[in-house]
Specification:
- The protein is mainly alpha-helical.
- It is built from 17 helices and 2 strands.
- It has a two-stranded antiparallel sheet.
- Helix 1 packs parallel to helix 10, helix 3 crosses helix 13 and helix 14 packs antiparallel against helix 17.
């Protein structure tokens, strides 16, 4: 116990990274204001599908693999290891999950998907922790290796089997989905009334209780579980100390190599679970290239969330929502988002003026004017922009949130065993 307290005193970061933390009431007020703004945009634009039950359910399904990848990145980077290889570990998860899933059932596929990701994470740990290779170089190499390995294995595992080929697996049996009877129908009826705010809340809640995969429930529970393990247990304190000051942790008896290995292996397993989710739940089949950069977007969600599980979940939800817009009334929904973004920039102008940042205020005002002009002079956006919306959102969010970020102090910093002795 004394060792844990001493470690916390020496290496734990200051709360909020030197900034005041928002209280729960303020956070809830911000969420309520954002929801009211979205509802107002929906009424003005007529894009009633923006907060429909189907839209929210689709956004949740798309957010889960991104969130699992982000959660994996959080585990690794809290221990001081940058994990650019999340994309490759997701690829391994999709392949191993599908390979086991079509033979022995979806839940066995989930287990093998996790194991496949763990193998990628373990390889990353060996390369970076034991041999001290640059973390970025190792991650990129794993991404390339995973694509090559799965393409090679597909020639033997799937090619020649009914429904399979060298680029895809046979169909996998689905995992059961749950819907709360009565409540789901009532919320859907309420959402279809298109009332201000009330219908939007009903649509969001309805999406959370309609056609929810059991694996989605497991994934959602992993977010508070990660927070509790890393921030409320001695194990989590020691692991985070490895990402803040491994030398100080070692002087207090922490086996830094062990905790880094555990963190990066768990990181790979979570990314592999995200890949298995894509293959088993989202599509029911493995296809080459189906991760589509979600490992990188998961990393962006983790950075947006300031290396915290709750913030990461919000980032994953945002990226999943923008990704789902193109699937349901794509051009109309994304067109409505132009109006939302323009209004948000107007709010940003007043905020920047309040903080006396006049250059930033002028830039925000100019961009807002362009977006208003674009919205009112067009009825929909080009299909190319619809497809690019998730990636544009990723860049915008990272650029706007960059000033408030605080990464673990020793994240990506080389460490050799014995430096603290």
């Amino acid at each position: 116990m004394s060792t844990s307290k001493a470690t916390a005193a020496r290496v734990a970061p200051t709360k909020g990274g030197g900034r005041r933390k928002l209280s729960l009431s303020v956070v809830l007020l911000i969420i309520a204001g954002a929801l009211a703004l979205v509802s107002l945009v929906r009424l003005i634009s007529g894009a009633n599908d923006v907060t429909s039950v189907g839209q929210v359910a689709g956004a949740l399904e798309l957010a889960v693999p991104i969130g699992l990848a982000g959660l994996g990145g959080l585990w690794a980077e809290r221990a001081g290891v940058v994990n650019i290889g999340l994309e490759g570990m997701m690829v391994l998860g999709t392949w191993f999950g599908a390979w086991a899933g079509f033979q022995w059932g979806p839940w066995v596929g989930v287990l093998f998907g996790i194991l496949g990701g763990c193998l990628g994470g373990l390889l990353h740990a060996v390369i970076t922790v034991t041999f001290g290779v640059n973390h970025i170089v190792s991650g990129v190499a794993i991404n390339i290796l995973a694509v090559g390995v799965t393409r090679y294995l597909s020639n033997f595992a799937f090619d020649g089997i009914q429904g399979g080929s060298s680029k895809q697996s046979p169909r996998i049996d689905p995992i059961d989905k749950i819907t709360i009877p009565g409540l789901s129908d009532w919320l859907q009826d309420l959402q279809q009334q298109h009332w201000f705010l009330i219908s939007d809340i009903a649509g969001i809640l309805g999406g959370l209780v309609t056609g929810l995969s059991l694996l989605t429930v497991v994934a959602l529970l992993l977010i508070p579980a990660t927070w509790w393990i890393l921030w409320r247990t001695p194990f989590g304190l020691r692991l985070r100390s490895c990402g803040e000051s491994p030398v100080a942790a070692e002087t207090l008896g922490v086996n830094v190599y062990k905790y880094k290995y555990i963190a990066v292996t768990v990181s790979g397993g979570l990314a592999g679970l995200g890949g298995a989710f894509l293959a088993i739940v989202a599509t029911g089949i493995y296809q080459e290239g189906q991760t589509g950069g979600r490992g990188y977007i998961g990393l962006a969600a983790m950075i947006f969330g300031n290396w915290m599980p709750g913030g990461m979940a919000l980032g994953a939800g945002l990226f999943g929502f923008t990704d789902s817009l193109k699937l349901r009334g794509g051009a109309e929904n994304v067109h409505a988002m132009l109006l939302l973004l323009a209004i948000l920039l107007v709010i940003a102008v007043f905020w920047q003026l309040y903080r006396k940042k006049y250059v930033a205020a002028v830039i925000s005002a100019a961009v807002s004017a362009l977006l208003f002009t674009w919205y009112f002079l067009t009825d929909q956006v080009p299909s190319q922009f619809v497809d690019a919306a998730p990636y544009v959102t990723t860049l915008l969010v990272l650029s706007l949130s960059a000033q408030r970020l605080r990464m673990p102090k020793a994240d990506g910093v080389p460490y050799r065993k014995g430096e603290g002795k």
